[in-house]
Structure formats: C-alpha cells, structure tokens
Design goal:
Blueprint: E1 2-6, H1 10-22, E2 27-30, E3 49-52, H2 57-68, E4 76-78, E5 85-87
Antiparallel strand pairs: 1-3, 2-3, 4-5
The structure holds zinc ion.
Length: 101
C-alpha cells in the first residue's frame, strides 16, 4: 500500500475516504486514534493518513487533486450527540453514526 494523503484532521480524512469510496477506490485511514486521549497532550502531533493499494494510487491521486481544489465552500455540522464536526455533505456522523439531518 502507499500513503496517499495526510489530512489536517479526522473529519477531513473521512471526507476524503468517502470521496474515494464514491469513486470506487478503497482506502484506509491510519492514525485515526492518534489524537484521542482526553486530557493528554501528545508530544508529537500525528495527523490521520489515507493509504491506498499501489494499483489504485494513480487514480486516487486524481481524486485527491479534485478534493484539494479550493473554492467549494464546505460548511461543518456539529453532531448533536458526540459533538464531533462533520462536513455538511455527510448524512450521518462519522464518529457515532448519529443522523445529521
Ligand atoms: Zn456523533
């Protein structure tokens, strides 16, 4: 597998994960628990990473390039149950599966 993308935060990683899935590409998120730990500040801040199969890498890059295009306003919804931020394109909270609509 190859590392495709390093996201600035977990919702961004999941948004790209869903975007890739919509394009028919299976990706995996690593480091997704790295920012956990209530009341604990990690010494090194680890960002979530998306990895894809080598064979999918080239196609996945084009999805990432579109994903990174600026201009598309992205609003955020806060989950009423767990308080996590979700892109407003999500119907369900990525964290706890609560309906966001
Ligand atoms: Zn939630």
């Amino acid at each position: 597998m190859k590392r495709l993308y390093t996201a600035g935060n977990l919702p961004e990683a999941y948004l790209l994960l869903h975007t890739l899935k919509a394009a028919g590409i299976e990706a995996r998120v690593f480091n997704e628990n790295a920012q956990g730990g209530v009341g604990e500040l990690p010494f090194t801040h680890t960002y979530p990473e998306l990895w894809v199969e080598d064979a999918e890498y080239a196609r996945a890059r084009t999805v990432v390039e579109q994903f990174e295009q600026p201009g598309e306003s992205s609003a955020w919804l806060r989950c009423s149950r767990c308080g996590e931020q979700n892109p407003d394109s999500f119907d369900f909270c990525w964290h706890c599966s609560e309906s966001l609509t």
